[in-house]
């Protein structure tokens, strides 16, 4: 069965400055283990390699689900709830963003070593006309810090992403009030 859409779930974390590296590594490994929850079609978690944002996030989790129901089951799963409870004390900030992606990638699992690029946009609220971007719009704005549009892309190398910032400014610049761009590497071993 070919899926006509998937749910993209993005969580950005800012780890507190005083946390030692062993604890940060344990957290990253624990977040990767959330991929063992049945409803997750794909999950990657780890440090951010490059960040364009004043918000200072340090880590990212990206996962994919067949439906909102599957995402909700993942969020309510005891393994997920335990991880949130255990690691919350070392997080200075957390931002979550969920959207329905109408364009389903050929492979739900990006190749190991590829570069994930997540772009989040915050629309200006001054009554600007709605713009259509080939991206997704959040359906859970509560934790999205005002950001409403996102895209996820996986590329072969880090350098391929340079021109996207200019493209975003050129296409939607007048409508955008803030941008977060996150780049991370898909681990070679899961």
Automatic annotation (TrEMBL):
Q: Which Pfam families match?
A: Dabb
Signal sequence bounds? none
Q: Please report the stretch or stretches of sequence annotated as the Stress-response A/B barrel domain.
A: 7-99
Q: Quote the InterPro entries the UniProt record gives.
A: Dabb, Dimeric_a/b-barrel, HS1/DABB1-like
What is annotated about its quaternary structure and interactions? Answer: Homodimer.
Q: What is this protein called?
A: Stress-response A/B barrel domain-containing protein
According to its UniProt entry, this protein's organism is: Brassica campestris (Field mustard)
